[in-house]
Design brief:
Layout lengths: L2 E9 L14 E9 L3 E5 L21 E18 L1 E7 L8 E3 L8 E3 L7 E3 L10 E8 L4 E2 L2 E2 L1 E5 L6 E2 L6 E3 L6 E5 L8 E14 L2 H4 L11 E7 L1
Antiparallel strand pairs: 1-2, 3-4, 4-16, 5-17, 6-7, 8-9, 9-14, 9-16, 10-11, 10-16, 12-13, 12-15
Length: about 230
Protein backbone atom coordinates (compact mmCIF):
# COMPACT_ATOMS: atom_id res chain seq x y z
CA UNK A 1 0.00 0.00 0.00
CA UNK A 2 1.47 3.31 -1.02
CA UNK A 3 1.62 6.15 1.43
CA UNK A 4 1.34 9.77 0.41
CA UNK A 5 2.95 12.19 2.82
CA UNK A 6 2.29 15.82 2.10
CA UNK A 7 3.55 18.73 4.19
CA UNK A 8 2.15 22.07 3.17
CA UNK A 9 3.50 25.39 4.33
CA UNK A 10 2.02 28.77 3.55
CA UNK A 11 4.20 31.86 3.83
CA UNK A 12 2.60 35.21 3.08
CA UNK A 13 4.19 38.64 2.88
CA UNK A 14 1.54 41.36 2.69
CA UNK A 15 2.22 45.08 2.34
CA UNK A 16 -0.25 47.69 3.58
CA UNK A 17 1.84 50.84 3.35
CA UNK A 18 0.20 53.95 1.93
CA UNK A 19 2.22 54.09 -1.30
CA UNK A 20 2.74 50.39 -1.90
CA UNK A 21 2.63 49.47 -5.55
CA UNK A 22 2.61 45.70 -5.01
CA UNK A 23 1.10 43.23 -2.58
CA UNK A 24 2.59 39.75 -2.62
CA UNK A 25 1.69 36.36 -1.28
CA UNK A 26 3.88 33.25 -1.44
CA UNK A 27 2.58 29.71 -1.28
CA UNK A 28 4.98 26.81 -0.89
CA UNK A 29 3.84 23.20 -1.20
CA UNK A 30 6.16 20.28 -0.59
CA UNK A 31 5.71 16.56 -0.13
CA UNK A 32 7.12 13.06 -0.45
CA UNK A 33 5.74 10.01 -2.24
CA UNK A 34 6.98 6.77 -0.71
CA UNK A 35 6.39 3.04 -0.94
CA UNK A 36 7.79 2.49 2.52
CA UNK A 37 5.34 1.32 5.16
CA UNK A 38 5.96 0.86 8.88
CA UNK A 39 3.74 -0.84 11.44
CA UNK A 40 3.81 -0.27 15.23
CA UNK A 41 2.89 -3.06 17.67
CA UNK A 42 2.98 -3.46 21.45
CA UNK A 43 4.20 -6.68 22.99
CA UNK A 44 1.42 -8.48 24.84
CA UNK A 45 -1.29 -6.44 23.17
CA UNK A 46 -2.59 -2.92 23.57
CA UNK A 47 -4.11 -3.28 27.06
CA UNK A 48 -1.94 -2.84 30.16
CA UNK A 49 -4.03 -4.36 32.97
CA UNK A 50 -3.08 -3.41 36.53
CA UNK A 51 -5.87 -5.54 38.01
CA UNK A 52 -8.19 -4.76 40.93
CA UNK A 53 -7.34 -2.72 44.03
CA UNK A 54 -9.51 -2.57 47.13
CA UNK A 55 -10.13 0.94 48.37
CA UNK A 56 -9.79 -0.01 52.02
CA UNK A 57 -6.25 -1.28 51.31
CA UNK A 58 -5.15 2.06 49.87
CA UNK A 59 -3.82 5.07 51.73
CA UNK A 60 -6.22 7.86 52.64
CA UNK A 61 -3.40 10.31 53.35
CA UNK A 62 -0.79 9.77 50.61
CA UNK A 63 -0.60 9.13 46.89
CA UNK A 64 -0.96 5.42 46.17
CA UNK A 65 1.76 3.91 43.99
CA UNK A 66 0.27 0.94 42.13
CA UNK A 67 3.46 -0.37 40.57
CA UNK A 68 4.52 -0.76 36.98
CA UNK A 69 4.14 -2.98 33.93
CA UNK A 70 6.68 -3.49 31.16
CA UNK A 71 5.98 -3.68 27.45
CA UNK A 72 7.82 -2.92 24.21
CA UNK A 73 6.94 -0.82 21.20
CA UNK A 74 8.13 -2.52 18.03
CA UNK A 75 8.20 -0.79 14.65
CA UNK A 76 8.59 -2.94 11.56
CA UNK A 77 9.20 -1.33 8.17
CA UNK A 78 9.15 -2.84 4.69
CA UNK A 79 12.57 -1.27 3.98
CA UNK A 80 15.01 0.99 5.86
CA UNK A 81 13.02 4.08 6.79
CA UNK A 82 13.57 7.18 8.89
CA UNK A 83 10.58 7.21 11.20
CA UNK A 84 9.79 8.61 14.63
CA UNK A 85 6.88 8.13 17.00
CA UNK A 86 4.87 10.23 19.39
CA UNK A 87 2.25 9.44 21.99
CA UNK A 88 -0.89 11.43 22.72
CA UNK A 89 -3.11 11.20 25.79
CA UNK A 90 -6.73 10.53 24.74
CA UNK A 91 -8.19 10.99 28.23
CA UNK A 92 -6.64 14.05 29.85
CA UNK A 93 -7.69 15.25 33.32
CA UNK A 94 -4.44 14.05 34.86
CA UNK A 95 -3.86 14.20 38.60
CA UNK A 96 -0.87 16.33 39.57
CA UNK A 97 0.73 13.67 41.75
CA UNK A 98 4.13 12.03 42.00
CA UNK A 99 4.67 8.68 40.33
CA UNK A 100 7.45 6.71 42.00
CA UNK A 101 9.34 3.84 40.43
CA UNK A 102 12.82 2.50 41.09
CA UNK A 103 13.55 2.17 37.38
CA UNK A 104 13.14 5.84 36.57
CA UNK A 105 15.98 8.33 36.74
CA UNK A 106 15.96 11.56 38.70
CA UNK A 107 16.23 10.21 42.23
CA UNK A 108 13.56 7.58 41.56
CA UNK A 109 10.92 10.29 41.54
CA UNK A 110 8.87 10.54 38.42
CA UNK A 111 6.14 13.09 38.01
CA UNK A 112 4.69 15.83 40.14
CA UNK A 113 4.12 19.31 38.77
CA UNK A 114 7.64 19.43 37.25
CA UNK A 115 6.85 16.81 34.61
CA UNK A 116 3.11 17.22 34.27
CA UNK A 117 3.46 17.10 30.49
CA UNK A 118 4.53 13.48 30.91
CA UNK A 119 1.42 12.47 32.87
CA UNK A 120 -1.40 10.53 31.22
CA UNK A 121 -4.93 10.55 32.60
CA UNK A 122 -7.00 7.58 33.76
CA UNK A 123 -10.41 9.20 34.13
CA UNK A 124 -12.49 10.80 36.86
CA UNK A 125 -14.63 9.61 39.73
CA UNK A 126 -18.40 10.02 39.65
CA UNK A 127 -17.79 13.19 41.66
CA UNK A 128 -15.51 14.66 38.99
CA UNK A 129 -12.17 14.08 40.73
CA UNK A 130 -9.16 13.03 38.62
CA UNK A 131 -8.39 9.49 39.77
CA UNK A 132 -4.67 9.49 39.14
CA UNK A 133 -2.02 9.42 36.44
CA UNK A 134 0.28 7.01 34.72
CA UNK A 135 3.70 7.61 33.20
CA UNK A 136 5.41 6.02 30.23
CA UNK A 137 9.17 5.59 30.49
CA UNK A 138 11.60 4.46 27.82
CA UNK A 139 14.53 2.18 28.55
CA UNK A 140 16.92 3.80 26.11
CA UNK A 141 19.85 1.55 27.02
CA UNK A 142 18.04 -1.51 25.67
CA UNK A 143 16.41 0.14 22.67
CA UNK A 144 17.57 -1.49 19.43
CA UNK A 145 17.55 -0.62 15.75
CA UNK A 146 17.93 -3.70 13.55
CA UNK A 147 19.10 -5.66 16.59
CA UNK A 148 21.81 -3.20 17.64
CA UNK A 149 21.63 -0.96 20.70
CA UNK A 150 21.36 2.57 19.34
CA UNK A 151 21.02 6.17 20.43
CA UNK A 152 17.51 7.44 21.04
CA UNK A 153 16.82 11.00 19.94
CA UNK A 154 13.92 13.28 20.74
CA UNK A 155 12.51 16.50 19.35
CA UNK A 156 9.74 18.76 20.54
CA UNK A 157 8.95 19.87 17.01
CA UNK A 158 10.19 17.02 14.86
CA UNK A 159 13.05 19.18 13.55
CA UNK A 160 15.59 19.99 16.30
CA UNK A 161 16.82 16.59 17.50
CA UNK A 162 18.82 15.96 20.67
CA UNK A 163 19.97 12.79 22.40
CA UNK A 164 17.23 11.51 24.67
CA UNK A 165 18.28 12.18 28.29
CA UNK A 166 21.92 11.02 28.45
CA UNK A 167 21.70 9.95 32.11
CA UNK A 168 19.75 7.15 33.73
CA UNK A 169 18.28 4.03 32.18
CA UNK A 170 14.56 4.76 32.11
CA UNK A 171 13.38 8.27 31.37
CA UNK A 172 9.95 9.72 30.88
CA UNK A 173 8.23 10.10 27.55
CA UNK A 174 6.47 13.41 27.13
CA UNK A 175 3.19 13.63 25.33
CA UNK A 176 2.85 14.80 21.72
CA UNK A 177 4.20 16.93 20.02
CA UNK A 178 7.41 15.32 21.35
CA UNK A 179 8.76 12.69 18.98
CA UNK A 180 11.26 9.87 19.49
CA UNK A 181 13.54 8.16 16.98
CA UNK A 182 16.90 6.46 16.63
CA UNK A 183 19.74 8.86 15.94
CA UNK A 184 23.39 8.99 15.01
CA UNK A 185 26.04 10.50 17.27
CA UNK A 186 24.74 13.96 16.37
CA UNK A 187 21.19 12.88 17.25
CA UNK A 188 20.02 13.09 13.64
CA UNK A 189 17.41 10.38 12.88
CA UNK A 190 18.64 7.26 11.10
CA UNK A 191 16.79 4.70 9.00
CA UNK A 192 15.93 1.24 10.27
CA UNK A 193 13.86 -1.78 9.28
CA UNK A 194 13.08 -3.19 12.72
CA UNK A 195 13.09 -1.21 15.96
CA UNK A 196 12.31 -2.08 19.57
CA UNK A 197 11.66 0.56 22.26
CA UNK A 198 11.26 -1.04 25.74
CA UNK A 199 8.63 0.85 27.73
CA UNK A 200 7.62 0.87 31.40
CA UNK A 201 4.17 2.00 32.48
CA UNK A 202 3.86 3.20 36.10
CA UNK A 203 0.51 4.01 37.71
CA UNK A 204 -0.44 6.07 40.76
CA UNK A 205 -3.80 7.19 42.13
CA UNK A 206 -4.86 9.90 44.54
CA UNK A 207 -5.27 9.30 48.27
CA UNK A 208 -8.69 7.84 48.99
CA UNK A 209 -9.78 10.83 51.07
CA UNK A 210 -9.50 12.91 47.89
CA UNK A 211 -11.17 10.31 45.69
CA UNK A 212 -14.10 9.84 48.07
CA UNK A 213 -15.49 6.88 46.10
CA UNK A 214 -18.15 4.46 47.32
CA UNK A 215 -18.73 2.42 44.14
CA UNK A 216 -16.49 0.43 41.80
CA UNK A 217 -14.51 2.97 39.77
CA UNK A 218 -12.70 1.99 36.57
CA UNK A 219 -9.16 3.10 35.84
CA UNK A 220 -9.39 3.85 32.14
CA UNK A 221 -6.38 5.38 30.45
CA UNK A 222 -5.96 5.49 26.70
CA UNK A 223 -3.25 6.89 24.45
CA UNK A 224 -2.47 6.89 20.74
CA UNK A 225 0.99 6.16 19.33
CA UNK A 226 1.56 7.79 15.95
CA UNK A 227 4.38 7.18 13.46
CA UNK A 228 5.95 10.12 11.65
CA UNK A 229 7.90 9.59 8.41
CA UNK A 230 10.96 11.85 8.34
Amino acid sequence: MKKLLVATTVAMALSATAHAADSTAQLKVQGVLTNDACTPTLSGGTTIDFGTFFVDSLSSTATNQLGHKDTSLSITCSSPTKVSWSIEDNVGDVADIDILNAGFSGGNVYGGGVALDAHFGVGKTAGGVAIGSYAVALNKHNATADGVASNVSSASDGEVWTLFFPTGSYDYVRVSPYQFAFGDNDAKPIAFTNAVFPLRIALAVEKTSTLAITDDTPIAGQATITLHYL
